[in-house]
Amino acid sequence: MHILLIAPQPFFSIRGTPLAVRELAEAFLGLGHRVDILTYHLGEEIAAPGLRIYRTKCFSRRIRAVRPGFSLAKVALDMALFPRALLLILKNNYDVVHCVEESAFFISWFRWLGRFLFFYDMDSDIPQQLIDSGKVRGRALLRFVRMLERRAVSCADGVVTICPVFSDKVRAIVPGKHVFQIEDVSVSDEFQPAEKTGKKTVLYTGNFEKYQGVDILIEAFTKIQPAWPDAQLLLVGGEEGEVRALKERCAGKNIVFAGKRPLVEMPGFLAMADILVSPRCCGENTPFKIYSYLASGTPILATDIVSHSQILENGREALLVDPTAEGLAGGLDRLLRDEAFARTLGANARRLFEARYSRKRYMEKVSHLAAYMEEALRKRSAAAPEMTDNGSKASSNR
After folding, report:
1. Do 135 and 266 fall into the same domain?
2. Fewer CB in 10 Å around end: N or C, the chain?
3. 172 and 297: one domain?
4. What is the residue range of 223's domain?
5. Is pLDDT larger for residue 58 or for residue 391?
6. Within this chain, do residues 77 and 151 fall inside the same structural domain, yes or no?
7. Is residue 393 part of a domain?
8. What is the pLDDT of residue 385?
9. Are 277 and 202 in contact (CB under 8 A)?
């Protein structure tokens, strides 16, 4: 198959959705398909046999970076993707157009451009994301976005989701819709033991956007410091300005900022940690980092919100606490005090990863999706209108 994968994000960059896009593209390539990726002008170049990357050029001088979530810069870049996508579809006669997040909203209106299969990759709940951002308050706009989402789900030949909440949402919109739940993957399936620093290390990895709860994690760690003076909080990620500001605020508190690090270094950071924390305070999609956390077999402390609770059972694979500084402080203190309990959580986390979220399981899920696509294309080809006597195709109701 020849697949167009539309990714309205900086690609490639070490962020959840771009990481997921890369993994999906590599999986399709590994199954022998050709993949074109249409994305922003931003991001690192990657190369692989059978892969082509197309980038929009509009705003390349004015927009030098795009943060996660809603922004006017992202709206402008999405508008630039739209005409380029149409041109590529007309030119390349794709078998499948696989649309990540909001790119499905505009492609759903242009099914008539070709006989391609249209798949909506629901990596996040866009309407809820707008509400959580606090930047969009107009009810009319939110209703409009929800209408676009419903249309994309209704028109899609299939919807790919990353978590149970989104799968349930799709089925509520269109009962019987073909849903393929393909969770994210770990940065590595195997983790080598790492030399410990001598201090108890609490690790967070990811961006520093408000919804990630980094501020409440720092507050929680400060609360437990009198009882645990030899513990350290290690934060991997964040933009330079954010890291610089927090360093000044947290000087002398046993808080270490590693900044953004290459993806190849992540297994080493995870292996050296004693506790892994996901302090996210809102949202429904499971963070990309959770699957690496599970794979590492290190005890996990996470907030008790649906992002985490839909795959992690409290007291079994993770300790889930209230999304507050007090809740996180209590969780840190318990895991530091009760090492047997912490070890049990880590072992259970690893078992869950091997059973459901390993790379082998991921490839099985993508293979199932690709097989469905190929079968749908065969059925569509068999149902195509026969050629008329004069050599032209008969009209169809499509």
Report:
1. no
2. C
3. no
4. 201-356
5. 58
6. yes
7. no
8. 64
9. yes
What pLDDT sits at residue 386? Answer: 54
| Residue 63 exposure: Cα atoms within 13 Å on the Cβ side | 22
Q: How far apart are alpha carbons 13 and 17 in whole angstroms?
A: 9
Q: Which two tokens stand for residue 61?
A: 């001088």
Q: Does residue 246 share a domain with residue 332?
A: yes
Range 176-205 burial, b when 16+ CB lie within 10 A, else e: ebebbebbbbbbbbebeeeeeeeebbbbbb
CA dist 61 → 58, 225, 362 (Å): 8, 46, 38
Cis before 12? omega within 30: yes
| Domain C-terminal end among 356, 373, 392 | 356
User: Residue 396: what pLDDT?
Assistant: 36
Give the pair of three-digit tokens for residue 125.
């709940």
- The predicted-structure confidence for 135-182, as pLDDT tens digits, reads as follows 677 788 889 999 999 999 999 999 999 999 999 999 999 999 999 999
Domain count, the chain: 2
pLDDT tens column, 305-329: 999 999 999 999 999 999 999 999 9
In this prediction the pTM is 0.91
Same domain, 25 and 57: yes
Average pLDDT, rounded, for the chain: 92
Residue 28 lies in a domain: yes
The full DSSP string for 317-369 is: TBEEE-SSHHHHHHHHHHHHH-HHHHHHHHHHHHHHIIIIISHHHHHHHHHHH
